[in-house]
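S1.2 Input.
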Amino acid sequence: MIGITGGALARFGGLVLGGPSPERVPPSVAAAIRHEQDSSEVLVSLVQAAALVFFAAVYTLTPKAFPPTVPFEPVPIALGFYLLFTLARSTLALHGRLRRGLLVASAAIDVTVLMVTIWSFHLQYGQPAAMYLRAPTLMYLFVLIALRALRFEPGLVLLTGGLGALGWLVLLGWALAEQPSVGVTRSFPEYAMSYAILIGAEVDKVLSILATTAILALALHRGRKLLVRAATEQQAAADLSRFFAPEVAGRIRNESLELRPGQAELREAAILFVDLRGFSRFVAAAPPRAVMELLSEYQACIVGVVRKHGGSIDKFLGDGILASFGATRPSPSWAAQALRAVEELVAEAARWRADRLARGLPAPPVNAALATGRVLFGTVGDAERLEYTVIGEAVNRAAKLEKHCKREGATAVIELEAWQLAEAQGARPAAVWASCPGRRVEGLERPVDLLVLAGEG
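S1.3 Output.
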C-alpha cells in the first residue's frame, strides 16, 4: 500500500513539477544559462526604464486627481528615486555584476518603493489610511512579479510575490491600527461607499497575489527543467556530431524515419583513401604524445582540404582516412571535386611535411588514392550501435590503390576512369600526372589504367 501511494505521489509530482532534471548539467550548459540570465537582467533594466518614461509622461500630461493645495506629491518623488535605482541597476547589469544579493535587494526595493508610494497617498490627500487600500496602483505589483519571470528563475518570482503580499498585509495592519474609528465592515456596499475596511476584500487581494505568484513560479520551474534538458541534449548532440561528418550529423538530426540497421541508398561517388607511409614503425618507436600530436596535425591538414572541396570524412582508421564525394551529399560535380581535393591535398601535405622537418620532427610521407563507382551509403551495425558509412567495390579499390602508391613510388594514384569523369565534370588538373596503363594492383583481379603523381611512396 505504501509503495502504491509513493508511486502515485511521484507521478503526481512529475505531473505538477514536470519531468526530472538531468542528473548532471554540463558546465557549458550551465554557463550558457547564466549568460542568458545575465542578458535577461539587461532586458529587465530596459523594461524598467521604459516603464519609468511611460509613467512619467502619463503623470505629467494627464489631469491630476488631487487639488493643487496638497502638501506634497509622492509620485514624482517615487519616480525620481526609482530612476536613480534603475540607472544603478542598469549599470551593474551591463557590466555583469548583478550577483544574488543584489538581485534579492533589487526585488525588495521594487516592492518597497511601490508600497511606500501607495502608503503615502493618504498623506497627500489628508484622508484616513484606509483610503490607500482602494488605490489601483497595487496592480503594478503584478508587473513587478512578471518582470522577475524574464530571468527564468522561480525563486525571484516567489520572493517578489511574497514580499508584495506581505507588504499589502502590512498596509492593511497600518490602516486598521492608525484609525480604528474608520471601522471594519462586513457589508460590501458600505465598503464600496466609505473608508470602512472589508477584511475579506483585502484577503482576496493577497490571495490573488499569492496565486498568481505560485502559478507563474510553477510555470517557470517546469519551463526551466525543460530548458535545462533541451540545452543538455543539444550540447550532447553537438558533442556527438563532432564524431560525424557535418552532413551525416545533419542527416541524423533531421531524419524523420526511425534509424535502424540496413537503411541504405545507392549513389555514384568518388572514394578517397589517405594514409601515412611508415606510420607503424613510427608508432613503435615514438612516445604516445608524439604519436597523437603527429596524427592531430596530419588529420587537421587532410580534413580541411577534403571539406573545402565538398567531401565528407567517413572514418579515421588510425593513420588512414576514408573520405567520399557525392555519397553523403549528392553533387553534380563529385568526381571533379575529388580530383581537385587530391591535388590540393598533395600540395598541403608537402607543406606540412616540410614544416615538421624544419622543426626537427618526424614527417612520414602522405599517400592518397582515388576511385569512383557505385556505392551504398547507409547505416550498419545493430540496434545498440549504428554507423553511417559507404560500402562498395570502389571503397575496396581505393584502399588497394593507396597501398599501390609505394610500388609506383608515387604520392597519389587515381584511376583513369575517375580522371576522365572528373574532366567531364569540369576539372582542370593543375598537377603533372603520369599515365600508367595496365598496372597490376595487388588484390585486384584485372589490370588497371592509372595516373600517378610522382613523389615519395
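S1.4 Remarks. The first strand starts at residue 264 and ends at 276.
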